[in-house]
Specification:
The protein is an all-alpha fold and 271 residues long. The chain has ten helices and two strands. It folds into two domains: 53 residues, no CATH class; 161 residues, Ferritin (Up-down Bundle).
Length: 271
Amino acid sequence: MEHTPILNSLDPEMMEPILSRRDAIAKGATASSKVVAALALGSIPIALGALAKDVYGQTPADVLDVLQFALTLEYLEAEFYTRGVAGSGLIPAADVTIFTNIRNHENTHVTALQGIITGKGATPVAKPTFDFTAKGALAGFSFSSGQYATFQALAQAFEDTGVRAYKGQAGRLINDKAVLTAALTIHSVEARHASEVRRLRGLKGWITGSSRDDLPSFTQPIYDGEDNVTQAGLNISGLGSGNGGTAGVTEAFDEPLTKAQVLAIAAPFLA
């Protein structure tokens, strides 16, 4: 029986990984029991559905989990910048507009994520209580005059985390294109924030290796893994000269963080 018309009628972006998985199974890779059962029944549509689930594994619950996770991170950033801008004498006049804009962006992200979650029939997670002393690691920090350097350092830590956090969840949104697009629009703005804050601190706008620059040691997990030089199985640093060497290669790519890694990084800031 010829099933090519069925395959041709499906979204090419969705079918590419499914067909790759099908070919892998044909070559001896392990298939899930649902795929095997569907094929045994001779049902191509059912097998395709099972194979899609075998490839992607995402469900509406996965998407909501990512949205709630992202909302929690945005709560943290929005609260941080709201308190920073309101802090008497904290931010120099020359930089107030920059951090006011970032505050507005983060609050807009919160509103948007809450709306998306509500639109999916769920209740947005409540905003946690935050401890911006990081459980005493930054003892005495209170958004007060004379604490601008600490404020900037925290801003860098939060923004660099946010960039990697959104990237790490993109794969879980692959079969919800609307949410994936929304997440990517936020991700790129977080990257702009990160670069701006880093330059305000007199640093490069990008990360070299796994260097945390001059941030406190407890922030190192934010940068662990950024020294990776292999992309899609290819060692980029071995492709010849003209790419800045190993340091340049690590600067050219940002690495994702898993949800577990991000939660561990955020834990000191949750009261």
